């Protein structure tokens, strides 16, 4: 365990903005977490659990404790004729896990290739891409209750999974440190290729199999999304809004070319990036913060932007989308202030 005071978080988040935490604590083993919590229950202290920092924006210094569980390990715990159970510790890099499962022929998370961040956060966020959400591959989630200092195992059916959401982000916020996730993966994969451009890209690579689907997803992502190693960003800054058919029909009267995707139950997902682009934000720079020039849903830190500048830019974007479309965008990135 390492404990640091007044610690810079700049290199621990993909936005790469400067912010200092009163205390930063890095855990490499489970017993370190239990030892720490037994001496210092967290309820009375402002705290935040950090993964890969790829969905966080620190707007100011963090007056509290940053807990960074870097627990490592991936193992196949069961292999049956039709499925395999793979347990990954929370501090594993998400894409390393995808690579591990694809190499063994286990299907279920290949469409989530190259999403930055940790295994622990993947479950908390219910990450999703190219027609797949991680909830459909989760068998159980292991965590430590910070108040009771004991291990808890969650059935995914009780975790309130929704679009980029789970109870861990809602009612249970701050109560559990996720330590591991067990995935149930298929030995005869169900390939998901309906999403725009996926099948065509696979076809150019070779026959449809897990390896080629993963390669195709990586290729598409690299052509569309900025690499945080090259320019600070946290992926999609806003969620795609979901509206009723009545709201959609009203919008189509004034914006007939507006894209929408049926979600079931007369609910439609709108493309936040399209709306932001229509408002003229794509590629715009305000001060030291900017909107990416290829994908308007992504805000970037080209060099020395502050968290406050990126946040202010997001506020301006929200306001212009409300003015133009009457839709309030919700942030996907967790803003910490
Ligand atoms: C270029 C780029 C592309 C992206 N593309 C996608 C995409 O296609 N789909 C998608 O869904 N997301 C995407 N994201 C967002 C991001 O990768 C995911 O949200 C990811 O799951 C965040 O993981 P992290 O470990 O970095 O979490 P962090 O940013 O460190 O934390 C995110 C949240 O999880 C909590 N948390 C982290 N670890 C734990 C833990 N062990 N226990 C409890 N809580 C924890 C934190 O407190 C925080 O609330 C993208 C980001 C980038 C930069």
Layout of strands and helices, then pairs:
Elements: E1 2-8, E2 20-27, H1 30-39, E3 47-49, E4 56-58, E5 62-69, E6 74-79, E7 83-89, H2 94-103, H3 119-125, E8 128-129, E9 132-133, E10 138-145, E11 150-154, E12 176-186, H4 198-205, H5 210-224, E13 232-236, E14 242-244, H6 245-254, E15 260-264, E16 267-270, H7 272-278, E17 285-286, E18 289-291, E19 298-301, H8 307-325, E20 334-336
Parallel strand pairs: 2-5, 3-5, 4-20
Antiparallel strand pairs: 1-2, 6-7, 7-12, 8-9, 10-11, 10-12, 13-19, 14-16, 15-16, 17-18, 18-19
The structure holds flavin-adenine dinucleotide.
Strand content: 25-35%
**What is the domain total for the residues?**
3
The CATH architecture category of the largest domain equals 2-Layer Sandwich
Overall strand count: 20
Runs in which pLDDT lies below 50 for 5 or more consecutive residues are none
Give the strand order of the largest sheet, numbering strands 1, 2, ... along the chain.
6-7-12-10-11
The tally of helices reads 8
Class by SSE composition: alpha+beta
Provide the succession of SSEs.
EEHEEEEEHHEEEEEHHEEHEEHEEEHE
Helix content: 25-40%
Mean of all residue-level pLDDT scores: 96
Enter the CATH topology name of the largest domain. Answer: Uridine Diphospho-n-acetylenolpyruvylglucosamine Reductase, domain 3
